[in-house]
Amino acid sequence: MNSNVNSASDAVSYSHLLHVRCQPVMNDMIERAATSKGTRPAEYIRQTLLAGLRADGFDPTAAGSLYDIVEGKQRYALVVGDDIAGITYHHAKPEDGRTWLPVVHVDSEPFDIARHWRLTPVYSIEGGRVVCTYPIVSKTLEHM
């Protein structure tokens, strides 16, 4: 079963908002860089920050552990029929009579920040859970 990816990706929220001030020309550069990678500017910035952290000696964990549980909250997807209606974080599985499935995050293949890009995630409903798969592509000229 495949889900409605657009509704799920629009419902994704992150726990912290980080405000960064930069020169106006950087907005256009970030937009163009993200477009060339086939991703959104916010995801491009997140991946760039991860690359910078690794370059500075910090080792952020793989995609899954970054997003599965945040501040003690598990990520759950609201499933209606064969579609994902929304994804949010909760302290416990919602018990409101609707179908909520836990979300797990995986990379499509082993990820190396020096050699790969993570693309926009793909969501699927698999055996009582929602799997959020980040497609991995090489940082080659054909993907730039």
Can you tell me about this structure?
- There is one protein chain.
- The protein is 28% helix and 31% strand.
- It is built from four helices and eight strands; from the N terminus they run ααααββββββββ.
- The chain has helices at residues 5-11, 24-37, 41-55, 63-67; strands at residues 69-70, 73-80, 83-90, 99-107, 116-118, 122-126, 129-134, 136-138.
- Strands 1, 2, 3, 4, 6 and 7 form a six-stranded mixed β-sheet that branches. Strands 5-8 form a two-stranded antiparallel ribbon.
- A hairpin with a 2-residue loop joins strand 6 (122-126) and strand 7 (129-134).
- Helix 2 (24-37) crosses helix 3.
- It is globular and about 50 Å long.
- Residues 1-13 have low confidence and may be disordered.
Question: Which tags fit this structure?
Answer:
single chain, 144 residues, alpha+beta, 6-stranded mixed β-sheet, two-stranded antiparallel sheet, 4 helices, globular, disordered N terminus
